[in-house]
Design goal:
It is built from ten helices and 16 strands. It has about 450 residues and is of the alpha+beta class. The strands form three sheets. Strands 1-6-7-14-13-15 form a six-stranded mixed sheet, with no helix packed on it. Strand 3 and strand 4 form a beta hairpin.
């Protein structure tokens, strides 16, 4: 066994000793003059790459959806028929038309009374003489019930009527001028009357409007026919061809929306003028002929019907050798619905709709205040069903006004239940209630 003895530690001579220097990595790199290490894909870990992929995917899907919408819109615009486009875009519905010409109207006040009975009695007396009469309540603090005749488009017409009324026992008859529409706002389109066409004017009168067609010759025939909110009038025969022309109502006028005319060829009697008047469904219309002028008097549903000359009086005044003054020829407005049921059958059919509509009133009030979309849609479904039932009925001639007013009440109520309606729902609902109550009082078959 070897005996290993410990080795003595080496002893360095003074000239062979070394200094020890401690350096970190950065100092070592600088000491060795090596470039610093650069991190690859700095800031993008595996989760970051996944998020970039999802973001890119969403952007690609959004771009594809936008291209799809643009493509579908372009296809509809270029390929859809015009009626479809008109129903989709409001600005495609009707072409812009020049504003109706306006002017002053001239009426004759025959009596002012403190009671409605006195004014109504005077209006009935004038009616038997063949003049178009109506009553109104004068504005101001001292409200008077007035019996009036007219309106007329010229002062000459009104003065002739005034003289006839004076001779007929109304010495206090005086002329009333209404200029409220003379300066009505108009659009910039030129309102030129085509050669051979009548002059069309819009006049304001107390509680009413009148559309006037001034013809070159006195017409021998005037026929009118109304289908819902369109009133058609045939006038003729005409001495010249009538060119198509149309006008829009001035801003702020609510009893008429649009007027258009065209020429139609009758088989034997010659060329006729056909006028189309677009009216609100609630507006009442009365057509009369005065010499070369044809008047369409428009009133609100709450206004009492015009007192017009009966046919017997008109026939007697137009008879040869008659000493009676010429009278206004009243043209009855005929509704297009034929074969109307008996008043009793119609009243029974109407009563169910009216009672159901009355039951909806309190719910409509609360829904208009709350504004809940679900409740509004449910009410609108009910009103839509009632409206469909009402439109499917055929009303007798004596109940047409009441029938139309109930339709107007439902239409107004449906605006309040429209989820997209941005106006005052409560005010819209109250307006519907006013029309509903007025409709109840407008006829004799259905009463509150």
């Amino acid at each position: 066994m070897l005996n290993r003895s410990p080795q003595p530690e080496p002893v360095l001579e003074p000239d062979q000793q070394y200094a020890v220097v401690l350096l970190n990595e950065e100092q070592l790199n600088q000491f060795m003059r090596k470039p610093g290490m650069r991190q690859v894909n700095r800031g993008y870990s595996v989760p970051d790459v996944h998020m970039r992929y999802l973001r890119l995917k969403r952007r690609t899907a959004a771009a594809a959806a936008l291209l799809l919408v643009l493509g579908a819109g372009s296809f509809l615009y270029f390929m859809a028929p015009q009626p479809a486009m008109a129903s989709m875009f409001a600005w495609k519905a009707l072409p812009e038309a020049p504003t109706l010409g306006t002017g002053a109207s001239f009426s004759v006040t025959i009596q002012s009374s403190g009671s409605s009975d006195g004014a109504g009695f005077a209006a009935n007396r004038v009616r038997t003489l063949g003049f178009p009469s109506f009553t109104r309540v004068s504005p101001g603090r001292r409200q008077l019930h007035q019996a009036m005749v007219g309106p007329y488009a010229s002062l000459d017409e009104a003065e002739k009527v005034q003289r006839r009324l004076t001779r007929s026992g109304f010495p206090t008859a005086r002329i009333f001028v209404d200029e409220s529409l003379r300066n009505a706002p108009r659009n910039e389109l030129q309102n030129d009357v085509a050669e051979g066409n009548p002059t069309v004017l819009l006049l304001a009168a107390p509680d009413r409007l009148s559309v006037v067609f001034e013809l070159p010759l006195e017409p021998r025939q005037v026929r009118s026919r109304r289908v819902e909110n369109v009133l058609d009038i045939d006038v003729g025969p005409m001495s010249a061809k009538v060119a198509e022309q149309q006008w829009s109502a001035p801003e702020g006028v609510h009893l008429i929306e649009r007027v258009s005319i065209e020429g139609v060829q009758a088989s034997e009697t010659g060329d006729f003028l056909r006028a189309h008047l677009t009216l609100p469904e609630f507006a009442r219309a009365n057509v009369r002929a005065e010499g070369r002028r044809v008047y369409v008097d428009l009133t609100w549903p709450m206004i009492a019907p015009d007192a017009v000359a009966p046919r017997s009086a008109a026939a007697a005044a137009d008879a040869p050798g008659s000493t009676q003054p010429p009278v206004s020829r009243v043209v009855p407005v005929v509704d297009a619905r034929q074969d109307a049921p008996s008043p009793e059958a119609y009243a029974e059919e109407l009563r169910g709709v009216v009672e159901r509509l009355g039951a909806v009133k309190p719910f409509l009030t609360s829904a208009a205040k709350a504004g809940s979309p679900d409740v509004l849609r449910a009410l609108d479904d009910t009103l839509s069903t009632l409206e469909t039932s009402l439109r499917g009925m055929r009303a007798p001639a004596a109940s047409l006004d009441q029938h139309q007013m109930f339709l107007s009440a439902i239409s107004t109520a449906r605006k309040a239940t429209d989820v997209l309606f941005s106006g005052d729902r409560s005010a819209q609902a109250r307006e519907a209630f006013v029309l509903y109550d007025a409709a109840l009082n407008a006829g004799s078959l259905i009463k509150p």
